[in-house]
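hey can u run this one w/ heme C bound, need the structure tokens asap thx
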Amino acid sequence: MKTFQKLLFVFAGLGFVMLGAWAHAAEGEDALKRAKKIDRLRGSAMHLQNWSAGPMVAMIKKQTPYDAQAFSTQAKRLAALAEMVEDLFREDLRSFAIDTEAKPEIWDDYAEFSRLASNLVDSSNKLVAVSANGDLADSSKAFTAVADDCKACHDKFKKDD
Ligand code: HEC
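ok here u go:
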């Protein structure tokens, strides 16, 4: 009887450990799923910034007629997205096996990443203000400053495609 009790204890203990391991594996899977989701959100925000910039670039290059209203709308969209960059990238996902163009160095120096993100917020807000005046030459200059801020961060923190 004593041996049986011991055995029961051992099995119960084993079962507990196994359950623990399963729970841990599930947790790991959920964490990876979550990390992938965050990374997708990051890419989406970046693609949307590109989408916002597209019509402005076309007008600046005179590929499409200048439409002050449309230009200004795209500038506002870009500025709204720029606001999201700092928060979206804050979490360090380096420990997850995800396919990302985000360089690991981002989380060695998040203050620098934040500074570059905040530069984009400033330049895109300036673009919103300037574009409201409806002058393409001025808007074009303000847009160049925005594009420079995109590039500054990509040069430092984005892997090449
Ligand atoms: C503060 C840093 C920073 C700024 C500013 C920035 N980006 Fe990015 N961008 C990144 C990083 C990091 C990635 C890689 C993201 C990833 O793969 O998770 C990226 C990726 C991209 C991608 C590719 C997305 C993909 O998933 O393939 C596009 C397009 C892009 N950025 C456009 C822009 C545009 C347009 C601007 C300016 C309006 C801009 N970015 C400003 C950091 C930045």
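Residues 9 and 105 are 49 Å apart (CA to CA). anyway lmk if its weird
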